[in-house]
What we know:
Structural class: alpha+beta
Amino acid sequence: xxNKPWTMKEGFVIAAGLVVAGLLLELTVGQVIWDAFxxxxxxxxLAGFVAMIVAMxxxxxxVYAFRFLSTYQAAIPVMCFAVVLTVIMxxxxxxxxxxxxxxxxxFWPFVLIYVYMAVxxxxxxxxxxxxxxxxxxxxxxxxxxxxxxxxxxxxLGNADMQxxxxxxxxxxxxxxxVDLKGNLKELPLAIELKEFIMETYEDGxxxxxxxxxxxxxxxxxxxxxxxxxxxxxxxxxxKIYQYGYDEMKxxxxxxxxxxxxSDPWLPYVYIGICMMLAGGLLMFITGVRRKxxxx
Length: 295
């Protein structure tokens, strides 16, 4: 091993080494604390991460390890580890306060593998100069760039995402909400419940429940909206969903519970996903055209 050129053996050893390093970090420093990466820290980290990948690309002729990372011998092993860890994530109960495999997004081995995979994808995007790219490589580059954008923004943007619960009483504006950890937060907007709406089936079970609300903002913007479970109101980057009500009073409930979600990085995630979809579609089209030309 470690004789040039490196093969998938070295690729698997590197990926396994990251898992071991992740386990050691988990045991010594604890889980990854994503709250520490809220804006502007995540923006600085992203800029530094991109700069590091560009530097590795520029040094690839001098440093063999950097050149190796843009090959399939490095990519396939890390993808295998990523798939295994993702399957474990799907098979285990994931909780906000969980540790280890019960909160994979903060589990060091999972994070390191995905960071390593993002590095490889970034190097693959930069591997071929645009002036010598063929149409197929441009399409593949679009797909990989979209994947890179999706992975990095979804991960680093997680620190800025807020998911809160707010309990409102009729005709009383509420500015405060509680996060998933029970912390009370004051918001830049208030919700005033005007009317709780419930439609029921013949047996009395709820068919639909919604709320007519007035949304007040500190900037002076007021909005009247009807919020359903799957039809949120949107204002100033917040989505407001109907979540619950006083189940003891049912249709006569004088309170309404809302879930408020803010994810400022979501548009960038969507851009990455659209690029991936466009790349995949163009790959399919160019593949069909090649078959037709051969025929």
